[in-house]
Amino acid sequence: MTFIRVAQLKSRVSLVVSLHSAFSGDTAYFSGITVWLEGVPAKPIAKADGFFVFGNLQEGSYRLHIASEHYFPETRDIEVHSSSTIEHVGLLPLPSYPFRGGATLLRVSAQDGQRRPVPDAWVEATVTQEDAVRARIAQDQQEAGSTELVLGAISGSIRVTDRYWVRSRSAKAFEEQVQIAGVTEHGRRVQLAHPLQHTYTRGAYLLPVVQTRTTARGEAVIAFSGIGLKQFTAQLRLRRADALQTDSVLKEVVLEEGKTVLSGSIII
After folding, report:
1. Can you provide one Gene Ontology molecular function annotated for this UniProt record (predicted)?
2. Could you say which of 31, 151, 163, 165 would form a disulfide bridge with 135 (CB–CB 3.0 to 4.6 Å)?
3. Which of 237, 219, 215 is nearest to 109 (CA)?
4. What is the CATH number of the domain that holds 52?
5. Please, are residues 175 and 165 in contact by the beta-carbon 8 Å criterion?
6. Where a domain ends, among 38, 63, 91?
7. What is the band of 127 on the pLDDT scale with cuts at 50, 70, 90?
8. No. of helices (H) and no. of strands (E), the chain
9. Could you give the C-alpha distances from 176 to 120, 126, 168, 194, 196, in angstroms and in order?
């Protein structure tokens, strides 16, 4: 867990926006980033490691904006309370992001039936092989409605805002997607953004999920990190921004560590 020193600030700390790259977890290419609250003239204090601190805000609802040269812009509605509020944001790399050599990438283009680009389409890739699991449930039983998971057999790092498919290993198989809202005990205990829908027993596993969206030109890049396999399979889903979840288009893709796969144009 990351702790933020705020005692030396003269104003009352109301909101801390914690940014990181959803690809790597670090703060690469954050030098030109801009963070502001709609209707609030005061600028935040930029701290080290992607923290932006707002002081002396009234309690209530605000609209947060984030703009950057290398990441998709973000806009979200947040609530500021009497105590300091921390908002974690994983920024999505644009297709033009300057990835370092050796990155494992999947590039895709979304088009409509007239071969026109589809902007702002939802794109998701889930690693499907069990030997690519990030962690396993360590408790004998994790009940439906739980907002916390106790994990074991952790491979790589687990970060706030990460997404995973949880899959059971029982004869009556369940699965669902979860998002990490908090991490403690070096990743062995995580808090969830939403309660579990199903009950899972020890050994149920978490598979990495990567989400992004398309640009105005219908292009998207999905960047994988920490998979730990030379070759792996991912299930790719695309969906228009205004479409139902059941209307997504599926495609299976085989990727190799350190290489870029061009998936071509997909009609959605």
Report:
1. carbohydrate binding
2. 151
3. 219
4. 2.60.40.1120
5. yes
6. 91
7. very high
8. 0, 21
9. 24, 12, 9, 11, 8
